[in-house]
Specification:
GO molecular function, one term: methyltransferase activity
Keywords: Methyltransferase, Transferase
Radius of gyration: 23 Å
Protein name: Methyltransferase family protein
Distance between the termini: 42 Å
CATH topology of the largest domain: Rossmann fold
Structural class: alpha/beta
GO biological process, one term: methylation
Strand content: 15-25%
CATH superfamily of the largest domain: Vaccinia Virus protein VP39
Helix content: 25-40%
Oligomer: single chain
InterPro entries: Methyltransf_12 (IPR013217), SAM-dependent_MTases_sf (IPR029063)
Strand order of the largest sheet: 3-2-1-4-5-7-6
Number of domains: 3
Length: 416
C-alpha cells in the first residue's frame, strides 16, 4: 500500500508526482467513455442496490429519497445509471479530472436527467465534506481507491461525508483479478498501446490469456474499451489487495467493515450445517478474510459504515443475541408460505433473492422457515421463537441464524 509517512523510502513516486501522474492519465483518457455510450450503456450496474441498502442501512427506506454520492465518477456512467433508476434520489458526483466532468455535464444536458449534479473535486481534499456535504445516505467509490496515493486517507475523507446511518460501497480489485494474472503476459510479449497495430496485437494476446483463464473472450480484459486498457492495465498504478488488507485500511480510516458481496456468495457454497458452528466462532471480518484467503476474489464489493453496534455472534454473547430483532430486508419474506404446526419437518424451500441475483434452494426445519417469514424487525429472536411455540435451545438456533446472517439472507436490528 502506498502511504505517506516519514519512513517512506519509495524513490519512484512521492505524493505530488504520483497524484500528478494519475491526474494526467485520466485527463488524457477519461473513463469509462467519452462519447454517447456514457448515457446509453446501462450494463455497468456496479452493485446490487437492494443488497447495498439491506446490508448497509437495514430497516431504512429503500431509495425512495435521500442523497447518493459518487466518488470518482469519471465521465458519469455510474451516476447516470443511478439517477435514472432512482429518480427521487439526489445524486452528487465528483471527479478530479476536469475533462471527465466537462464530458459528464455535456452528456447530462443532452439527456435531460435532472437529479444528478457534477463537481470537479479531489478525493484527497481533507475538506471534502465542507465542499460536498456531510449528509449522504449512500456513497459509491468504485474502482477509485486503487489509483490514489493513500487509500486510507481517501476513505477517511469520504467517511466525513456520510450521514450518521449512511453506508459506503467500496469496489476494489482483489489478488485474483485478471489484470494481476495478465502481468507476465504483458512483460513476455512486450505489449503496449502505442499505435493501432500494437493495440490490436495487445488485444489478441490478452484475449488468448482470458481464454486460458476460462473467461469468455467477449467479456474478458482483451475486449474492454481502450480507456480501460490504458488506465486499468497499462496505467500508472493500481492496488490489488486481499480482503484482509482492505479491511485494515477501512478500519484505520475510522470506518467499520460490514460485508463483502462475493465473500457472502462464497459462504453460500457451504451445504453441510456442521461447518457453520465452527466458522461462526470467528467474527465476521476475520471469517471473510479467511474465505478470501481460501477462495481469493478477483474483486471486492465491500460495504462499510461509521462505527455501529453489530449483532453479537461470538459464542460468549449468545444470550445477548436473543434480544436482537431479526429482519429479512434483502428479499420478499411475505412470499414464504406459512408453515403450520407441528414444526418438526425438514422441508425443501427455494428463496428468490434478487439482491444477490440468484435463487437459493435450502433444506430447512419447518420452524426456521416460519421464523424467516416472521422476521420483520419488530420482535426479538426470543419473542419470535416463543410466538412460534417451539422449544429450541439457543445452541441449536444460533448456527442456523448465523448461516443466514453471514450469507446476507438475514440482518439484525439492535434491541429496543
Amino acid at each position: 500500500m502506498n502511504t505517506i509517512s516519514n519512513s517512506d523510502t519509495e524513490s519512484h513516486f512521492d505524493f505530488a508526482s504520483f497524484s500528478r501522474a494519475v491526474l494526467n492519465q485520466f485527463e488524457s483518457t477519461p473513463f469509462p467513455f467519452e462519447d454517447e455510450k456514457v448515457l446509453s450503456d446501462q450494463t455497468w450496474k456496479i452493485i446490487p442496490p437492494n443488497w447495498l441498502n439491506a446490508i448497509g442501512r437495514p430497516g431504512k427506506p429503500f431509495y425512495d429519497r435521500g442523497k447518493f454520492l459518487v466518488a470518482g465518477c469519471g465521465t458519469g456512467n455510474e451516476a447516470f445509471n443511478i439517477a435514472r433508476a432512482f429518480p427521487n434520489l439526489t445524486v452528487v458526483a465528483f471527479d478530479i479530472s476536469q475533462r471527465a466532468i466537462e464530458t459528464a455535464i455535456k452528456w447530462q444536458k443532452a439527456s435531460g436527467i435532472q437529479n444528478v449534479h457534477f463537481f470537479q473535486e479531489d478525493l484527497m481534499n481533507p475538506n471534502l465534506a465542507h465542499s460536498l456535504g456531510s449528509d449522504f445516505d449512500w456513497i459509491s467509490c468504485h474502482e477509485v481507491l486503487s489509483f490514489v496515493y493513500d487509500p486510507q486517507a481517501a476513505l477517511h475523507h469520504l467517511a466525513s461525508c456520510l450521514s450518521p446511518d449512511g453506508c459506503i460501497y467500496i469496489g476494489v480489485k482483489g489478488t485474483f483479478h485478471p489484470t494481476v494474472r495478465l502481468a507476465p503476459a504483458i512483460s513476455l510479449f512486450s505489449l503496449n498501446l502505442n499505435n493501432s497495430e500494437q493495440l490490436k496485437r495487445t488485444r489478441e494476446v490478452l484475449s488468448a490469456c482470458d481464454n486460458l483463464m476460462g473467461i469468455p473472450m467477449d467479456k474478458g480484459i482483451g475486449a474492454q474499451p481502450e480507456s480501460y486498457l490504458k488506465t486499468h492495465v497499462f496505467g500508472v498504478h493500481h492496488d490489488c489487495f486481499p480482503l484482509h488488507t482492505w479491511i485494515e485500511i477501512i478500519h484505520n480510516s475510522g470506518l467499520q467493515y460490514i460485508n463483502s458481496l462475493y465473500t457472502s456468495m462464497s459462504f453460500l457454497q457451504l451445504q453441510d450445517n456442521r461447518f457453520f458452528d465452527i466458522l461462526t466462532e470467528l467474527d465476521l471480518p476475520t471469517l471473510h478474510s479467511l474465505i478470501d484467503h481460501c477462495n481469493p476474489s478477483f474483486f471486492h464489493m465491500i460495504v462499510a459504515s461509521k462505527p455501529r453496534k453489530m449483532p453479537p455472534f461470538a459464542p460468549a454473547d449468545r444470550n445477548e443475541f436473543l434480544h436482537w430483532r431479526p429482519l429479512v430486508d434483502l428479499w420478499d419474506r411475505t412470499k414464504i408460505q406459512a408453515v403450520h404446526p407441528p414444526y418438526n419437518q425438514i422441508l425443501e424451500v427455494t428463496f428468490d433473492i434478487p439482491g444477490l441475483y440468484r435463487q437459493l434452494p435450502l433444506k430447512l426445519s419447518s420452524y426456521l422457515i416460519e421464523f424467516l417469514r416472521r422476521s420483520d424487525g419488530s420482535r426479538s429472536v426470543s419473542q419470535i421463537v416463543a410466538d412460534i411455540g417451539v422449544e429450541v435451545k439457543p445452541g441449536e438456533l444460533f448456527p442456523a441464524l448465523a448461516r443466514f446472517y453471514f450469507s446476507s439472507l438475514l440482518n439484525f436490528l439492535p434491541p429496543l
